[in-house]
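Amino acid chain
________________
===
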Amino acid sequence: MKLNVFVLTVLAATCALPGPARGDDLTAIERSEPTLEQVREKALRHARLASRPEQSWARRARLRGLMPSLTVRATRGTGWDFDLSRASTGIERLDEGTDGDIGYEARATWDLDRLVFDDAEIRSAETAQRLHRVRLQLGAQVTALYYARRKLQIVQIYDPADDTATALMQQAEIDELTGQLDAVTDGWFSRQLAPTDD
């Protein structure tokens, strides 16, 4: 009885081991398709999240205090002009009239307190946190799609379907996941799968 159990265990383990041809098929897939890291990078680029400008926003907000606010103003007015004059006869006379005035003013104002702290730092930090969460969500989405597709490929190789309908459904699921990866990479994923002419 113990011998039979041992034989069955060895047979089950032997059947579970991948054959060399199947292992070669999986290796060929892994070599011919983009890596997860490449797909993530393309997805971030397509979503315009690859660069990280928010890292410099707080510093730039503070340095804004060194830049003056410039205001230029021109004023125009009319006023009364009084002159006291003495005639040749010795009689003093008051002359009055109007006079046009034009004035120009330029002002530069520095907010040096911004060098210590600026409210824009809080807004930039909040935006940076939101962008970080979006990057994490996109990375998780790409990872889930990538490995769901890879699992179906492994099933096709190591446990092929017995009937045509099941095989077609498995291929349709792979195609659907390929389409979703194309959606987040702007079609780049499928272009990497296309055979190249040597």
